[in-house]
Amino acid sequence: MALFQRGFDIEDRIVSKLERYGCTIQKDPKLDHEHKLDFVLIRFPENQAFFALGVQVTTHLDSVDKQEEFLRLNLNSRVTRKSLYLELSPNVDVEAGGGLAVLTVMAQFQLDRTYANERVVAVRIFDDLSHQFYNLAERVKQLHRQAMEQESKTQSATVESITKLREQWVAPRPVPAKPGSPLAPGAAGGRVEAAPGIVEGILVAFLPSKGFGFIETDAQGTFFVYINSIVDTVLRAQLEALPVTSGQANLSLGVSFQDAGKTRPEAKYPEAKNVRRQEQRGAAAG
Fold it and tell me: Alpha helices, DSSP H only, in the chain?
């Protein structure tokens, strides 16, 4: 049940099958490049009516990026009357019924009055050659919701871990410097206090696969931080070097940042912006 044979892509094999069935097919690199259409069906066998059905074939199921792009390019397209986003499950065999299943769904989309006013429709052909049509725009929204729910679950699991880390972490207390010491307040070269609007804390965890982490502060609690909010190039490079497959990395890195507040209605924590290492800010201030 090989989908690929002798270097032919799946769409080439489907086109070959459809032409054997008597379909008239148009292929054009420009259609593929500009409209993400692998081919256009011009005529069905024994039917001289002009259809101009654009088709994209994919074996990457539920690829939201591909779905969004196809929808954007073809929803108001003047290139074809209709466009079909065709998903094939991994074990669909084009040579053993799969090609006929493709012809069936294409004919149904064109001839069934249910889809008479639909310009763009998606369909999935399953391993057993059954199929199901679905609304592509609604599916894109559903996949985005699922991704957000998964991110929320990941954040919740991370929050539990952060809470445990926070219970174990005690913020270091500064030791007062003796009068006249170089570290005494106001002494040349002494420690510079945080600038107004700057918060200091400890970056305690980071998830490389998600690109976000958590900062703990002594007085203001937990902050959420995205990788693109880290402006310190050394710190950012250090975090980007963490293996993506490593899961959550538990850290203890002193940072300073700006409190951006809660940037989303559903956010549990305020967000940290312009994050730097503490020592870098102190060195610059000194």
Answer: 10-20, 29-35, 64-74, 99-111, 136-168, 233-240, 278-285
Of the candidates 96, 77, 92, 94, which has an alpha carbon nearest to the alpha carbon of residue 35? 77
Query: What tokens appear for 230 in the block?
Result: 């880290």
Q: What is the pTM of this model?
A: 0.55
* CATH number for position 206: 2.40.50.140
d(CA 251, CA 238): 11
The maximal CA–CA distance of the chain, rounded, in angstroms, is 100
In this structure, the answer to whether residues 130 and 156 fall within a common structural domain is no
Find out whether 87 and 66 touch, Cβ atoms under 8 Å.
Answer: no
Q: Name all contacts of 145-153 with Cβ < 8 Å and 24+ positions apart.
A: 147/64, 151/210, 152/266
Examine residue 83 and state whether it is found in any structural domain, yes or no: yes
State the pLDDT at residue 191. 41
Residues 180-239: pLDDT tens digits? 444 344 444 444 444 557 899 999 999 888 888 999 998 888 999 999 999 999 999 989
Does 112 map to a domain? yes
Domain tally for the chain?
Answer: 2
Burial 27-49 (b: 16+ CB within 10 A, else e): eeeebeeebbbbbbbebbeeeee
Judgement on whether residues 56 and 119 belong to the same structural domain of the protein? yes
Q: For residue 201, what is the DSSP state?
A: E
Question: Quick one: 121 and 159 in the same domain?
Answer: no
Query: Tokens in use for 23?
Result: 């379909």
Residues 90 and 155 in one domain: no
Q: Which domain covers residue 223, as residue numbers?
A: 151-170+195-285
CA distances from 238 to 85, 124, 161, 208 (A): 41, 43, 21, 11
The span from the CA of 9 to the CA of 98, in Å, is 14
- Both 90 and 158 in one domain: the answer is no
